[in-house]
Each structure stands twice: as C-alpha cells, then as structure tokens.
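dumping this here before i forget
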Amino acid sequence: MSELFEYKCPNCGMPLSYTTNKDVLYCKYCHSEVSIDAMNDQESELGTKEDDFKWEDIASETWDPSEIENLKVYVCESCGGEIVAEESTAATKCPYCDSPVVMKGNFEGALKPDVVIPFKIDKETAKEAYFKHLSGKKFLPKVFKDQNHIDEMKAMYVPFWLFECDADASIRYDATRVSSWSDSQNNYVKTDHYRVIREGSIGFDNVPIDGSIAMPDDLIQSVEPYDYSEAVPFKTAYLAGYLADKYTLGIDDAIPQANSRVSTSVATAFRSTVQGYASVTPVESHVSLKKGKTKYAMYPVWVLNTTFQGEHFVFSINGQTGKTAGDLPLDKGAFWRYFLSRTAIGTAILFACEAVLLLM
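structure:
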C-alpha cells in the first residue's frame, strides 16, 4: 500500500507541491518556495515525539516498628476508607460516609510520610468557616444549621503525593491573522497563516495528588491550595488526637494524574504567550521531565458528612486555611413557597398594571 505525504506551506498552511528540476516545494496559494532540505530539517526538528515523563526519586521511607506499635487501622466496608488512629480511639463511624467501621488490626505495610502540615485551625474555627459557607443560602435545609449535626465534624490527615520536577517543552501552533477591506465594487478578506513555535522550561514544586480513594478528588481539590512553607518533617506525635487516612492510591497510580496536571499546566502557560492572532491551534507538543522527585505528605482536613432525604453530602474544610467546599441540598418546600410567593406578587402587579391601562 502506498502512502501519500503532504507538506504544508510554513507561510499560509496550504499544501505544497514539488517543482520539477528546481528541488523546491512550491505553494500555488501564496507563491512561496521552500527548499526540500530546509523542509526536511524543519520536520526532523519538530517531528512528533512521545512525552518523556520519568520520576527518578520516588518516596520510599518506611516506618520504624516502634512508631506504629500503638496505631490501629479501621476499615469502612461501605466506601473502602482505611482510617489510622491511636489504639485508644473509639472509632465507630467512617468520617466520609458515616457508615460503621471495623478494626482491621495493627497498622502496617505502608510508607511513612515525609512531611506533614499540622492543623492550624481548631474545631470552633472550622465551624465558623462552615457557617460562612452556608450563609446566604435561602433554600438550605434546616438540618445543615443544626448544632448537633455540626458537632459530628471530624479532624483528619489526608494523604497526598507531591510531585516536583522541571519540564522542558516544545509546542508548535498553526495561527492565523485576518484582515479585511473593501472598495467600490467588492469586499475582501485576507487570511495570513503562521507557524508559531514555543520552547522553554517550567519548574513545578509540590504538585499535589490526593492519595485517598474515599475522599472525592473534586472535594479535596476545591479546598486547595495548602501553604507548603508550613510543612514540617513528619513525626507520629502529630497524629495524637487526630484520625489519619491511609493512602489507598499508590504512587504508581498517582503518577499518571501528576503527568496530566503537569502537561495541562505547560500547555496553558505556553499558550498564554501566543498573542495577537485570530486563531491559534496546537498541532504538535513534546514535554520531557528532569529532576523528577516525589514526596508523601499528610494535609489537615476537617470532614463533615450528613444524609438528607436519602442523599449523602460530604463537606471538607482546609485545616490550615479554613477554605470550605461541598455540595448543598435544596429544601424544595422552601423553594416552592418562595417561588409561589414571588409569582403571586408578580401576578398582582400585572393585574394592577392592566387595571391602570383600562382606566386610561
């Protein structure tokens, strides 16, 4: 089977054709001539390449047996969460789904965190942040403002994999500029085509990937960022009085997510430098990583879950900044009462306007 190769004009983007005896490619649209050697060199330089993502320094520190002899693992059979707590902790319900948990046994078989961001806000401050999140919500069910319900808020450390690297990238775009004019007889539109190339390096520090399957990714990402400057080397003492979620997403499973976040950030940063064109289309991209390192961290989160009319709701509050996130239910009774009252007022105003018009 034969293959048809097509080269595009670097000036207008239209197909080029070979010119006999001149050893050049000719564009019949903008009348450009491009030497075959130059085109081959350019294609060789910008040829399609696979992204090269290699993480060299992978988190691997293990626990000392003396550090975990008083830690137990509690497993939720509903959502799969594995909660680590002190042996004396009476953990009876999962902080994520409020289902009963069972004690699995001693804590073992996991990597030791490299760093931890200690809790900075206490329960009362977390409550204030939560109520601020609820303020102004007219159709929120009353149960969400009930104090007994708020007292179920739990403080826990959530596992994160942190990725650090330098990214070298080369991205090629097809871009256009459009100009128009007219004379006494015709309107004209001219489209100029350009090949735009961006190359450079970007450094990434502590790109976070949630290591817990039980904690919804969108929920924990919504309370980011954390201030990593306040991270300290991990010590078991930081777990005293708190729950900790054992990572259920391993480092190998987290790497594809990190690659995706790095690639997206690179594409966004490079695209922001291509300005002044009517259209810009990325046609080729290559990203390679160097100095790739990973760390295992524990970040503080206040977690609150509740059920309303058979639907489960989970809220998270950043234990360092107080930033709050979570979906809110709708009190349908309050909504319809408000809607009908507004409709009644609108109808009364309409009738009044009609009466005034009739009198006139």
